[in-house]
Amino acid sequence: MVFLGDLLVESPSFVSVSVFADAFIGVNIGTDITDIPSPTDIVALLKAQSIQHVRLYDADRAMLLALAHTGIRVTVSVPSDQLLGIGQSNATAANWVAHNVLAHVPATNITAIAVGSEVLTTLPNVAPVLVSALEFIHSALVAANLDQQIKVSTPHSSSLILDSFPPSQAFFNRTWDPVMVPLLKFLQSTGSYLMLNVYPYYDYVQSNGAVPLDYALFRPLPPTREAVDANTLLHYTNVFDAVVDAAYFAMSYLNFTNIPILVTESGWPSKGDSSEPDATPDNANTYNSNLIRHVLNNTGTPKHPGVPISTYIYELYNEDLRTGPVSEQNWGLFYANGGPVYTLHLTGAGTVFANDTTNQTFCVAKNDADTKMLQAALDWACGPGKVDCSPLLQGQTCYEPDNVVQHATYAFNAYYQKTGKSLGTCDFKGVAIVTTTNPSKASPHIHNYLLVNFTDFINNFFVQNKSPKILKQFLAI
Ligand SMILES: *[C@@H]1O[C@H](CO)[C@@H](O)[C@H](O)[C@H]1NC(C)=O
Ligand SMILES: *[C@@H]1O[C@H](CO)[C@@H](O)[C@H](O)[C@H]1NC(C)=O
Ligand SMILES: *[C@@H]1O[C@H](CO)[C@@H](O)[C@H](O)[C@H]1NC(C)=O
Ligand SMILES: *[C@@H]1O[C@H](CO)[C@@H](O)[C@H](O)[C@H]1NC(C)=O
Ligand SMILES: *[C@@H]1O[C@H](CO)[C@@H](O)[C@H](O)[C@H]1NC(C)=O
Ligand SMILES: *[C@@H]1O[C@H](CO)[C@@H](O)[C@H](O)[C@H]1NC(C)=O
Ligand SMILES: *[C@@H]1O[C@H](CO)[C@@H](O)[C@H](O)[C@H]1NC(C)=O
Question: Is 294 in the pocket of ligand 5 (CB under 6 A)?
Fold first, then answer.
């Protein structure tokens, strides 16, 4: 109750945008994929997973048509290469809006336009026209009477925020004040939000050990390791909150205290090269599962408890055509064929999730392990290891798919479970690894992928939690 009072004094509009709107989880859809699924297939996956909010990196016509009449909320993007033209010409902007937005609403529920992506940190030459681009796009929406339902903003990299810990001392790179000040004025006057990409993975990797992995993954920290902002005495239990609060403080440094934040990208890669040892399925699963719980709980941040921070996960699919380190291609929740990269464990939402996988671990063969070493380990498990490998024989239940990785996984996991998961029983000379994803569920021969369904989770969660909380906030007012 105290915090609502504080909010009322400090920033009245937070209350109006936050108390009644719950935070949502959305998903980014990148398309640098060899076998890109058709728009119809993509929408089928979204529906099957009950994903209600998506962000596109363009305004692809076929995709927007496929999203029509689905109820899915869509953020479209002005690709960075069209920004210069739009920022220099009101007519070009109006034309873009006519073709990419007006042609699709209301059938397709477009709720926001992301103008460019991380422009100030990646395309500084476009920076001088960035605010004009937002204003021109917005005036076209005003002319069509759509400015209330479609918000205009531009996603920023969190690297724009300097001295981000402690959050109370954070500020936007001063070089960009001439852009940030009019931009924030625009966001404030149009009731829009600051779009921010938040990547605790990079904060962790680039910190050279200063940021504990647990702190990046939202895992509980011993109180002695919690980060405390000495100026505000606020306790930070995870990097995500600290970055979001740094953005709030950076805005208030420029005297803007009532602009909400929308996290346009956040995620964790499930695979990396040898220099990226923390890009693993378990870490990706832990991060995204904890992030989803954190966001849907409307926990807010230490600076603004209870103020929802809606977040788009980066990203729906692994994008195999992306260049750079291996991790770049492995941020997805799904493979292009629609199979899950790992099973999110969204427990903690009450008793509905009877089959809590959070605590379950399995032992699987590493995909990239040497085939001869795998075969040797498989032979050992089925021989001296005393695993019953008869289901792997031709014609038996686990014969298909007939490859050494799948067979080794069967044997490794049987051995691991049989030995009570004791230490060292999932190694097999380095070709095995512990995971929280049940290999028998993820295996293609059982087509029933048991990825926890977003809607079930959200519904179950809110049935349990929403009403009392909202009621409490009503009573507080
Ligand atoms: C479109 O999305 C907005 C924001 O979530 C919602 O308020 C509105 O009801 C939706 N419109 C339709 C037609 O579904
Ligand atoms: C820009 O175009 C919109 C229509 O798209 C119009 O309402 C507005 O007046 C124009 N602004 C300028 C500065 O020409
Ligand atoms: C601030 O932005 C400018 C322009 O992009 C860049 O040259 C400078 O390195 C940035 N400062 C810091 C500390 O990152
Ligand atoms: C913020 O407001 C204070 C008090 O009105 C003023 O002194 C300060 O110059 C303002 N800062 C900016 C960046 O506008
Ligand atoms: C959910 O929010 C409440 C406060 O509203 C907080 O006490 C609790 O720790 C949060 N749970 C999670 C999982 O974030
Ligand atoms: C839990 O697992 C059992 C057996 O695998 C299954 O029959 C049941 O439907 C599952 N329950 C839920 C809530 O997923
Ligand atoms: C995980 O297992 C431990 C020990 O069996 C138990 O105390 C804990 O509550 C479990 N956690 C979850 C989330 O089920």
Answer: yes
- Annotated catalytic residue, options 10, 135, 226, 265: 265
- CATH 3.20.20.80 placement within the chain: 2-329
Q: Which helix (H) or strand (E) holds 119?
A: helix 119-122
183, 184, 255: residue to mutate for ligand 4 pocket, most atoms within 8 A of CB: 255
| pLDDT tens-digit readout, 64-78 | 999 999 999 999 999
Strand-pair category, 362-365 with 432-435: antiparallel
- Angle 127-143/90-97 helices, nearest 10 degrees? 60
In this predicted model, what pLDDT tens digit does every residue of 45-61 receive, in sequence order? 888 777 889 999 999 99
Amino acid symbol at 386 = K
Q: Which residue has the higher pLDDT, 99 or 423?
A: 99
For residue 251, the number of C-alpha atoms closer than 13 Å in the C-beta half-sphere is 25
Per-residue DSSP letters for 331-371?
--SB-TTS-BSS------S-SS--S--TT--EEEE-TTS-H
3-state secondary structure of 66: helix
CA distance 273 to 79: 29
Residue 310: CB partners within 8 Å, gap ≥ 6? Answer: 23, 24, 25, 26, 53, 262, 263, 295
Contact 337, 317 (CB under 8 A): no
Interatomic CA distance for residues 449 and 446, integer angstroms? 7
Asked if the model's pLDDT at residue 468 lies above 50, the reply is no
315: annotated active-site residue: no
Q: How confident is the model at residue 452 (pLDDT cuts 50, 70, 90)?
A: very low
What pTM does this model have?
0.74
358 or 88: which leads in pLDDT = 88
Give yes or no for residue 356 CB within 6 A of ligand 7.
Answer: yes
The answer to whether residues 433 and 426 touch, using CB atoms and an 8 Å cutoff, is yes
Whether the predicted pLDDT of 113 surpasses 50? yes
The topology (CATH level 3) of 2-329 is TIM Barrel (3.20.20)
The ligand 2 atom nearest the CA atom of 93: 5
**Cβ–Cβ < 8 Å for 271, 327:** yes
How many whole angstroms separate alpha carbon 108 and alpha carbon 70? Answer: 8
Q: Let me know if 118 is a catalytic residue.
A: yes
Is the CB of residue 237 below 6 angstroms from any atom belonging to ligand 5?
no
Decide if 476 contacts 469 (C-beta within 8 A): no
What b-and-e string marks burial along 309-342, b requiring 16 or more CB atoms within 10 Å of the CB?
bbbbbbbbbbbbebeeebbbbbbbbbebebebbb
Distance CA 75, CA 60 (A): 12
Residue 230 Cβ inside 6 Å of ligand 6? The answer reads: no
